[in-house]
Amino acid sequence: MSRDARWKSLLELLVERGRLDVEEAAADLGVSAATIRRDFDQLAEQQMLVRTRGGAVVHGVSYELPLRYKTARNASEKERIAKAVAELIAPGEAVGLTGGTTTTEVARALAVRPDLASGSPALTIVTNALNIANELAVRPQFKIVVTGGVARPQSYELIGPLADGVLSQITIDTAVLGVVGIDVAHGAAAHDEAEAAINRLLCERAERVVVAADSSKLGQRAFARICSTERIGTLVTDSAVDAETVERFEEAGVKVLAV
């Protein structure tokens, strides 16, 4: 197992459990205790965790795993979801993309669609995610609009009142949301309230809202609400979603695509 793979696994276990000891982590990952001690020390230097006697705990209240350590989670499901979302977008649309691993895959799926290889523009992409803007800026057929704001290291998203100035002046056809959780009763949500506020404004400027979320996020709640279920037109998820969950969302007026 490579160092990067170990670090991803360690951080995911730490977020899940809140605390890890060296021997426990070594057994879970199938490596030596000495390797885990070095990993813990190096991650502590990057302020990704807090070192304790014999182990590590989550750093402060930062329970959200940074984006660069999330990319391996449910990767195949996210790719299928992204392709299905991309197919919902018509050439010439103005599309809003929030940050996150699934929406990043949506951006990549849009970038390789043959019918979007040319146009003036083929798509207008409005995003507050620096990594998405960076990936799509090299596509001359796409018009890229980036909101203002202050960069949030966990998600590469720009947040804060500076983004309002851009979003309040535009309208978009489709907003594609990446979420931490989506629940029929409580709607779509994120960990961070400032991130949720920007995503909410993006929804308000959109004709339709599409949520891209793997099935592990369905029925989950998070701290900061983005929008109500009534505002969501389509939910694209993976085929592991159970029939009862699909029925509840459809009864609430949400079209569910399970791929």
Overview of this structure, please?
The protein has 259 residues and is α/β, with parallel strands linked by helices. It has helices spanning 3-17, 22-29, 33-45, 75-86, 101-111, 130-136, 162-167, 193-204, 243-251; strands at 19-21, 49-52, 55-58, 94-97, 123-127, 142-146, 150-152, 157-159, 172-178, 181-183, 187-190, 206-212, 224-227, 234-237, 255-258. The protein has a 7-stranded parallel beta sheet with strand order 6-5-4-9-12-14-15, with helices on both faces. The chain has a 3-stranded antiparallel beta sheet with strand order 1-3-2. A 3-stranded antiparallel beta sheet has the order 10-11-13. The longest helix has 15 residues, at 3-17.
Q: SSE order, as H and E?
A: HEHHEEHEHEHEEEHEEEHEEEHE
Roughly how many Å is the radius of gyration? 19 Å
Largest sheet: 7 strands, parallel
Query: How many beta-strand segments?
Result: 15
Strand content: 15-25%
Count of individual helical segments: 9
Shape: globular
Flag low-confidence runs.
Answer: none
What characteristics describe this protein?
single chain; 259 residues; alpha/beta; seven-stranded parallel beta sheet; three-stranded antiparallel beta sheet; 9 helices; 25% strand; globular
Write the layout of secondary structure elements.
Elements: H1 3-17, E1 19-21, H2 22-29, H3 33-45, E2 49-52, E3 55-58, H4 75-86, E4 94-97, H5 101-111, E5 123-127, H6 130-136, E6 142-146, E7 150-152, E8 157-159, H7 162-167, E9 172-178, E10 181-183, E11 187-190, H8 193-204, E12 206-212, E13 224-227, E14 234-237, H9 243-251, E15 255-258
Parallel strand pairs: 4-5, 4-9, 5-6, 9-12, 12-14, 14-15
Antiparallel strand pairs: 1-3, 2-3, 7-8, 10-11, 11-13
